[in-house]
Amino acid sequence: MFAVPAAAAQAVIAYSGLEIAEPMAGRAICSLAFVRYADGDLGPYHEFAVAFLVRPPGTPPPSGGLGRLRGMRDVGAFIHWLPVNQEFTLECGRSIWGFPKELADIPMDLAGRVKRCAVQFGGRTAVEVAVRPGPPMPGGAGAPKVDAYSCLDGVTRRTPWTLTPSDVRMRPGGAKVVLGDHPVAEELRALGLDRARALSSTTVGHLSMTFDPAEEVHS
Fold first, then answer.
1. In the chain, how many domains are there?
2. How far apart are CA 210 and CA 40, in angstroms?
3. Is 119 a domain residue?
4. Under 8 Å CB-to-CB from 156, ≥6 apart: which residues?
5. For a FRET experiment, which of 85, 111, 121, 197 has its CA 20 to 30 Å from that of 61?
6. In a 3-state reduction of DSSP, which class is residue 162?
7. Is the model's pTM score more than 0.90?
8. Which of 167, 176, 168 is nearest to 197 (CA)?
9. Residue 12 is inside which H or E element, if any?
10. How would you classify the pairing of strands 115-121 and 108-109?
11. Phi, psi of 7 (to 5 degrees)
């Protein structure tokens, strides 16, 4: 998770009609994530995500520092970019939930102490992320329910998303990001993410997830 300029983040997701959440005045949260799916309805695959925390549609911006903190309880995650490395999950993700999936090579190295992932197109790297796990968190740590938002072909959708994590580790900082020459990499570079220090990094040893049907958002 990275703190980025709110105005720049809002410009990136303007096409969705959603509004960026600001836990601090003038700052938004951009999250980079990579996942190895081992067993599920969409088969095994690798996935990378660029997401922003957003306010629920129709929610006015909170005022004051305390109001901003309270408002973070209801935020959702807007999925801006979601490359995957298998055709079946690409088709299902786009047709069922409207997730902006595209096909890429996504090599991962999760065996070592540092967890690494890259997104590549035709052998050219768009983004690389390396995460150093922190100390273990107490059992039950994490966010069990989240509203995931997406916008595909001009339609914005909300998908309720339930997570059950275990073996969660968290630390301040702990992530290194290197950006390439993909258009999304240029957006992240404009947000200041090239080699930026993360607010926090989280690794999850095992994660079960359930996605409910998507609903169109009308704001």
1. 1
2. 10
3. no
4. 16, 17, 18, 57, 149, 150, 216, 217, 219
5. 197
6. strand
7. yes
8. 176
9. helix 6-12
10. antiparallel
11. -65, -40
For 122-139, what is each residue's pLDDT tens digit?
989 999 999 999 999 987
Per-residue model confidence as pLDDT tens digits over 29-55: 999 999 999 999 999 999 999 999 999
Whether 181 is covered by a domain: the verdict is no
Query: Distance between CA atoms of 126 and 105, rounded to whole angstroms?
Result: 10
In a domain, 117, yes or no: no
Q: How far is CA 167 from CA 32, 39, 127, 136, in A?
A: 19, 18, 26, 7
The pLDDT tens digits of the residues spanning 61-75 come to 777 666 556 556 789
Q: Which two tokens stand for residue 169?
A: 């580790």
Residue range of the domain that includes 151: 2-104+136-173+186-216
Residue 100 in tokens = 């902006």
Q: What token pair was written down for 179?
A: 């950006």
Find out whether 147 and 195 touch, Cβ atoms under 8 Å. Answer: no
Residues near 133 by beta carbon (within 8 Å), at least 6 away in sequence: 113, 115, 169, 171, 174, 201, 203
- The DSSP code for 93 is I
Give the rounded distance of the alpha carbon of 157 from its chain centre.
16
The verdict on residue 64 lying in a domain is: yes
